[in-house]
Design a protein that fits this description.
The protein has 324 residues and is α+β, with helices and mostly antiparallel strands. It is built from 12 helices and 10 strands. The chain has 3 domains: 24-102, no CATH class; 105-181, no CATH class; 239-323, GMP Synthetase, Chain A, domain 3, CATH 3.30.300.
Length: 324
Amino acid sequence: MSRLLSGLPDERREWSLEPTQSAATQSRGTIKCEACTHIFKPLTQELVILYGEIGPDGLVLAHHEAICPSCGKMVEFTTKENQHQPSRIQVRDSINLELKEIDLSVSELRIRQVYDLIRREGLKNSPASSIYKAVFMGFIEQITEFTLGDWREIVKIASPSEPVTTLKAWELYQESLVRHKNRIAALAFVEQRQSQKQVGDAPTKVLTQPQEGLRPTSSLSQGQQQQQLAPRAKKLGNPYFQEKYAQQWSKSVGFCSVTTTKFLSENTGLFHVEVTAKVVRISLEVANTPDLKSKLKELYKETEIQRAFSQGFGKEAKVMLRLA
């Protein structure tokens, strides 16, 4: 019987002096000190999260430190994320050096806006990639406000069968930061190119001395000549759409605040209007000035403008900007 259980005496065997920890011990929340093999339960204050990372299964691994009560050595241990208790944790080796913490909370308002976007665009049964693209395009201005918790909910909406929700949400979260950074860089490049073009196109004055005994042939006065040399400011917008929707434009601007109304009147013009069964898409041509970026950041209130134009046009409005 011993031979059947243990094999022959000369059989090759694998020996190990490493102790094994039972699953029952792990389930009780205890840890083992690697220095003295003492098994103990960490104190409450030792369960504070030091930093976290995304594990292979897509869940957040929280890292802790505890002092062994037997030998006094510092013991590092990890715990897996509890999805029912979202929290804010420090993340190590983030791709964005300015990112110091990951927010796992969920904004009901943003999720509701995503639902509205899917309904407006008719993407209810569309592939998950189409929904993600629509979210990137529709919320590009405030995409950095979306938390990892928000992206996890979006993944559940777009792809309920996704096996590892948190890992996919983490990839979308990183992509959103990259997209927003690229958009800011593109706007800055366009502003720089336009300013260089304006400097290159500046008219140069050539002063000529009339020959003695000859009078200038031009009958225009000096003031009229200066008016002709001065470049005319380009009128923003499309005259056809401005005339057709003049009443709706006036109503929309009237629903805005004083600063927003002044910004729209002085720096934009109605360029294109596309009316569909559910929404009206409005394109505003904006003056490409050197301080455009600062003006947009300070004066362009997207939520206020969307709401004002929805009231002015009597239908849900989607307002976009284009450079002149």
